[in-house]
Specification:
By secondary structure, this protein is mainly alpha-helical. The protein has 18 helices and 7 strands. Strands 3-5-4 form a 3-stranded mixed β-sheet, with helices on one face. The protein has a two-stranded antiparallel sheet with strand order 1-2. The longest helix has 27 residues, at 437-463.
């Protein structure tokens, strides 16, 4: 029995009302036995939760289950369409049709390489024993060692064959079984979508080992970075950065996130400032801020800065059907892995602040900051207004704090506001009244007539 005070209500014989009091239960010999048992149970539970494999491997986990609050906003953005990679969606009925293709990929892999099935199986087991399972947030104790290692091996080889098929010409004359495994464009598009999902990942270290140990020198001249960069070129956000001087990412989502890291590290980052803007792109433009496309070397998405001349330079963003899926999974990865700067989350918050209405999108498209492949400004506006929902970020982790602070200070300056209003008036005058010769002559004649009328009125007043 636990050791605690028991509060009771009892009727005293000599009184008719209730008296509230407290007393300790009588202490018996069994009581001390129960206390010892309770303490022993608490120690066992403490040891279990601190020594359990899940607790020990949590710091090693890099492939996470998407938090439920994020999933509820748009579940389709986190759910695979045609293929399961890794254990999270393994065995789901709508993904089973792709499993035979994984074995076909293994057959092609063995055909093109100098290894046999025994060597691949041994490699898979050794990788499993080293660190395969600890990469995942969940334990998946219901999957045996053999099934888990086979799953990772097949999924890694599936990805290898997919990216090689994407960058190499495959023909029956080469001795390969079939020209292409995935001929249908819609299947290839859905696979691309599935490979960008946080829950649909395999450890990239194992994939790299399979590449390096199972291909000859001629085939492995392209690095893993180059192969993946080529495969994800048309992912929709922007062209891939040329530099591949990065540490090996932990998985494909990490690869995409690291590819967008800023090249001007420290130039705009500050641990001070506001978390978001106070004005939209249209309002900032009316206050004198100019928007220009930044053409940086490497074309990095996060190389955004505000100049002393009032120009906000932003690399071009290509928005298509996969943009939401990619952004949501990059954000989910950052939200789960809180030990790094929230680069993509910061970018999305910045863009959400700039974009409130389709009018803001129209302005950014005209300035070359956004390439709208959706062909509907309202869709882009809704996209960025919904992306930050349920995300959490501290002020100290907001990457564009200095940019926001400079923009707010600049747009609040009355001189800049007056100057912007004057320039806007000139543009309206030139567009509406000076667009051709005849309208210009009409405006000039009307102006001269107005001046003569004023002079005549003044002279008449002076003669009185």
């Amino acid at each position: 029995m636990p050791f605690y005070l028991i509060f009771s209500v009892r009727r005293l014989p000599e009184q008719e009302h209730l008296e509230v009091g407290s007393y300790l239960e009588p202490v018996t010999e069994d009581f001390f036995t129960d206390v010892d048992a309770h303490i022993r149970l608490m120690k066992e539970r403490l040891s279990f939760y601190t020594d359990h494999n899940d607790y020990k491997k949590f710091k090693w986990a890099c492939i996470y289950k998407v938090p439920e609050k994020l999933r509820k906003v748009n579940e389709d953005a986190y759910t695979p369409r045609v293929v399961s990679l890794g254990p999270y969606h393994r065995g789901k009925p709508h993904l089973e049709a792709m499993e035979p293709y994984k074995w076909r990929c293994l057959d092609r892999y063995l055909t093109r390489s100098s290894v046999n099935l025994d060597m691949v199986a041994e490699l898979a087991i050794s990788e499993y024993q080293r660190n395969a399972r600890r990469n995942y947030q969940d334990s998946f104790d219901d999957i045996s060692v053999q099934d888990f290692s086979q799953m990772i091996m097949l999924d890694c080889i599936f990805i290898i064959e997919l990216i090689l098929e994407n960058v190499q010409e495959v023909s029956p004359e080469d001795g390969q079984p079939n020209a292409k495994i995935f001929d249908d464009p819609w299947i290839r598009h859905d696979i691309l979508h599935d490979m960008m999902l946080l829950e649909n990942q395999v450890p990239l270290e194992i994939l790299a080992d399979l590449c390096s140990k199972c291909f000859d020198a001629n085939t492995s001249t392209d690095t893993v970075h180059a192969l993946l960069g080529t495969y994800f070129t048309n992912v929709g956000i922007m062209d891939r950065p040329e530099s591949t001087e990065l540490a090996l990412p932990v998985h494909l989502v990490d690869f995409l996130g690291k590819s967008y890291r800023p090249t001007i590290e420290g130039k705009v980052f500050s641990r001070k400032g506001r978390l978001a803007l106070t004005r939209s792109a249209t309002e900032l433009h009316e206050a004198g801020v100019k928007f220009e496309r930044e053409k940086t070397e490497g074309n990095c998405l996060l190389d955004i800065y505000f100049t002393t001349k009032g120009v906000l330079k932003i690399p071009q963003l290509k928005v298509n059907k996969e943009t939401e899926t990619l952004f949501r999974n990059l954000i989910a990865f950052e939200q789960c892995r809180r030990d790094e700067i929230q680069y993509i989350t910061s970018y999305v918050i910045l863009m959400d602040s700039l974009i409130n209405t389709p009018k803001d999108v129209k302005l950014l498209v005209r300035c070359g900051v956004i390439e709208n492949l959706l062909e509907d400004n309202e869709l882009v506006s809704n996209l960025f207004n919904n992306l930050p929902k349920e995300t959490v970020i501290d002020n100290k982790d907001f990457y564009f704090a200095n940019v926001c602070e400079d923009l707010n200070n600049y747009s609040k300056d009355y001189w800049h506001q007056w100057k912007a209003a004057w320039l806007k008036s000139k543009q309206i005058l030139r567009r509406d009244y000076l667009s051709n010769t005849w309208t210009t002559i009409s405006v000039v004649a009307a102006s001269i007539l107005l001046v003569l009328t004023v002079i005549q009125t003044v002279c008449s007043i002076l003669q009185l």
